[in-house]
Amino acid sequence: MQDLRVHVEKAVRPVVADQGTKLRMREELYSHLLEVFEEERATGDDEAAAILRANDRLGDPAALTAELQATASRVSWYEGAIDRIVHRQDETEIGHACRLASRYLLAIVPLIIVVVPTVWIIQTLIGSTQKSFLDLVSDSLWFGVPFGVFATAQVFFFTIIAHRMLRQFDKPSWRPRSIGGVFGLCAVSTVFLLVSSFALFSILTGNPRATYELMMPKWLIASSLMPFVMTGFVLARRREIERLEPWSSLEIADET
Length: 256
Description:
Helices cover about 80% and strands about 0% of the residues. The chain is an all-alpha fold. A hairpin with a 4-residue loop joins β1 and β2 (about 175).
């Protein structure tokens, strides 16, 4: 029912929240609206009249938007706010990767701003003077900046890889076009994870040799799981794409 979907989309699209939360809102509202529509049809109304009455019973889209916004968590609002800042229509693969990576990059500064004063206050209250406030800031930057760059690079790279992986599967069967292509992407992901992880811990510890000897066996075990992780991601992303398709194509005249 296109008209019912449009009414739901008018209510959900202006909500500031992450895509997963908004998708759940759409599906729950649409399911409820379908039930209302069937009730109206049962009274003998024709389809057009039943749609109008069902939309009226659901409520004004602007009022629904306010109610839905109140149910969104702060984390969901934060992700949605960043998406609104950096998201563009007809988003490219690189644009999508940049948008997701920006969430982690923008989280570094507020994290340091919150954590450092908190640790310093606790340290002061318990009477410990092992480190000054400036020392805590320095330590936080020493750990936070490399880790932030690492996390941002991981998200960016694996988002690009995920898009390439999705290209290897045909719709609607979602069978792989090339087994070699799938395993090749998994191999590239594994190498990138090993190299970037080694670089990160070498910087943090200042001892590349010790990092190699202590961490490499664990990294090899973790990297061996990469094909399963990537396959699981593709399956989850496939499901999300299928659920979003009926909504992403809707043209809403008034999105305010």
